[in-house]
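From the pipeline queue, job 12 of 40. The input is one protein chain; the requested action is below.

Action: predict structure.
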Amino acid sequence: MESLVVFAPFVMVMFIVWIGTRSKLERKRLEVTAAGSAEKAAQYASRVQELEDRVQVLERIVTDRGYDIATQIEALRDTKRVEDQGSGVPVNMERKEEA
C-alpha cells in the first residue's frame, strides 16, 4: 500500500502532462481544420458568385423582348447545314504547281 502512495504524485504529474499535451494537439488540429474549411468556403463562394452572374445573363437573355430565340436557333441550324455540306474548292494535292 505504501508503494502506491509513493507513486501517486508521479502518476498525477504524468496525467497532468498528458492532458496538457492532448489539449495542445486538439487546439492545433482545430486550427488546421478551420483554416482548410475557410479556404474551401472562399472557393465555394467564388464559384457561387460566378454561377449567379451566369444565371443573371441567362435571365436577361430570356426576358429580353427583342431577343428572338427561334430565329437564333434557325440561324445555328443553317450554319450547321453549311458546315455539313462542305464549302470551298477541293485541293488536288497530287498535282504540283509549275513555275
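Job complete. The mean pLDDT is 79.
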